[in-house]
Specification:
Number of helices of chain B: 11
Radius of gyration of chain B: 20 Å
Number of helices of chain A: 9
Strand content of chain B: under 5%
Distance between the termini of chain A: 33 Å
Order of helices and strands of chain A: EEEHEEHEHHHEHEHEEHH
Mean pLDDT of chain A: 91
Number of strands of chain A: 10
Largest interface: A-B, 50 and 46 residues
Shape of chain A: globular
Mean pLDDT of chain B: 87
Helix content of chain A: 25-40%
Oligomer: heterodimer
Low-confidence stretches of chain B: none
Largest sheet of chain A: 6 strands, mixed
Distance between the termini of chain B: 31 Å
Radius of gyration of chain A: 18 Å
Chain lengths: ~240, ~270
């Protein structure tokens, strides 16, 4: 069953065609990667999927509902995390999570915050100000925020960018098990090709606002005649897509 | 819908989301004593300065001025804080790069603004309680001497302040963080024609006409009338309330149009950078 269907998304900012006819589908329990060099249109695509940016044309449907017309209902079943986002610095982590639990209309915010804190091992951070967290701790708290509403679709922009290898590995394992065991769909962007190879069922390569290749990591490597996704990335980024 | 959440369009979910905005701001205030200080500092300074000015005038046998000026200082704070507190609530999300996090939640623009307004009420009530007490203790001025008219006077000023805050928020959404100066200064654009510290009749005729279109001018004129022994001017208060409806309508339209424009131009995304 398709959780997310985006069709022919386009977005132009002045002279720049940021996204040009992007279409993608994410199914239940599926982990999809959106890759591409800087400026390829990944974040703009994610932001259109979240309703932060209105597409010039195209449509976004989640759970069979049109995002534009059913924004509140759709967003209550989705969540998002990105390393570049901030959190109110004066608040303690517990207060941030309690506040977002309410913003997602949760029945028992405190109980859910405790569950998520245990899941992400951020219990010791709950009484600390978010401004005092390291970037890795901040990323884990952002992920905790993103899991609060038990989302059916989790959209993650560079989810492990600020984490050390050990923490990154644990978060990857957690995200994969969350997707596999609970049927959540994940859509992630990352510049860590090994991470994408290990996590994603399907990968879409974006270049200059267009999806230029799609498939599993192995399929893409075979398609481009290289050994792994890292080389696919370099080939697409440096040479463009072969005709 | 997940089992752990209320149905997205239910009343419980709506109020839970509004409570989320209020909770966040209350927690921020609790964690930052400087914000509590800020609520009280400027109002108290104004009250003290104007209070002693009025004592000086009273000593010079102009007793009516005392109550008129102190009443004006207190009511002006209602308008000023109503505008600033809502704007600051929004700006804090901008400063902490939290705006994107908020806009990907199911919170509607209406719920967000309602949360900011409810929190502003809490802060204004706290600040005003201190000021009213100080005015009584230091100068023997009882604001409640205005009587029942105090409620509509304050209501008109609160609603006008919130409308101005929505305009300021719209300016920041449209022009970016650089426009935050509007959040601090917009209310002062209205001060000269609102007749806060002097009757509208002292203004040149064109400005008097302009003043009739400013809800606050009817409040401050009404307050002086009541303190001077006249009854509450319900007819002009009704006019002020009608003007408030127009101001709020325009402000809401501006806010929703600006939000739509920010989404269309990708400006909302840039608040996360």
């Amino acid at each position: 069953m398709a959780i997310l269907e985006a069709q022919s998304l386009t977005k132009r900012f002045g002279p720049v065609q940021a996204v040009d006819g992007v279409g993608l589908t994410v199914g239940q329990g599926e982990i999809t990667g959106l890759l591409g060099p800087n400026g390829a249109g990944k974040s703009t695509t994610l932001h259109m999927l979240l309703g932060l940016v209105t597409p010039d044309s195209g449509s976004v449907t989640m759970f069979g509902l049109d995002l534009q017309r059913h924004r509140t209902e759709v967003l209550s079943r989705v969540n998002f995390s990105a390393g570049y986002l901030g959190l109110p610095g004066v608040l303690h982590v517990r207060e941030v999570l309690n506040s977002f639990a309410r913003l997602y209309g949760l029945r028992d915010p405190r109980a859910r915050v405790a569950e998520v804190a245990e899941l992400l091992e951020i219990g010791p951070l709950l009484k600390r100000r978010t401004a005092d967290l390291s970037s890795g701790q901040h990323t884990r708290v952002q992920l905790g925020k993103a899991l609060l509403n038990d989302p059916e679709l989790l959209i993650l922009d560079e989810p492990t960018a600020a984490l050390d290898p050990d923490a990154g590995e644990r978060i990857r394992n957690l995200l994969v098990s969350v997707a596999r065991e609970t049927g959540k769909a994940l859509l992630i962007t990352s510049h860590n090709m090994r991470e994408v190879e290990r996590m994603c069922d399907t990968v879409h390569f974006l270049s200059a606002g267009r999806i230029v290749a799609s498939g599993s990591a192995a399929e893409l490597a075979a398609h481009f005649g290289v050994v792994d996704l890292e080389e696919v990335f370099l080939k697409v980024a440096r040479e463009g897509v072969p005709a | 819908m997940t089992a752990i959440a209320f149905e997205a369009h239910s009343t419980q979910a709506r109020w839970r989301r509004v409570a989320g905005v209020v909770y966040r701001d209350l927690a921020a205030m609790r964690r930052s004593p400087i914000r509590v200080f800020e609520i009280l500092f400027w109002p108290v300074i104004e009250l003290v300065v104007w209070g002693y000015v009025t004592l000086f005038l009273q000593a010079n046998k102009v007793p009516f001025i005392v109550s008129a000026l102190l009443g004006a200082v207190l009511l002006w704070q209602v308008l000023h804080r109503a505008s600033n507190e809502v704007s600051i609530g929004f700006l804090e999300d901008v400063w902490s790069r939290n705006l994107i996090n908020l806009h990907v939640t199911p919170v509607t623009p209406g719920e967000y603004v309602t949360g900011l307004i409810l929190f502003s009420l809490i802060k204004i009530a706290g600040g005003l309680a201190v000021m009213v007490t100080l005015a009584y203790v230091l100068y023997g001025f009882g604001l409640f001497g205005v009587g029942i008219g105090l409620i509509p006077f304050m209501a008109v000023l609160l609603v006008l302040g919130w409308a101005l805050a929505l305009v300021a928020i719209s300016a920041v959404l449209r022009f970016g963080e650089g426009a935050q100066v509007i959040a601090w200064s917009l209310v002062f654009v209205f001060q000269p024609v609102a007749g806060v510290f002097y009757p509208v009749s002292v203004l040149p005729e064109p400005l008097q006409w302009l003043a009739t279109a400013v809800p606050a001018s009817h409040v401050f004129e009404g307050m002086r009338a009541v303190l001077g022994g006249d009854p509450v001017p319900w007819d002009t208060l009704a006019l002020a309330a009608g003007l408030d409806v127009v101001y709020v309508g325009v402000a809401l339209w501006l806010y929703t149009a600006t939000l739509r424009h920010a989404r269309s131009k990708g400006r909302l995304s840039r608040f996360g950078e």
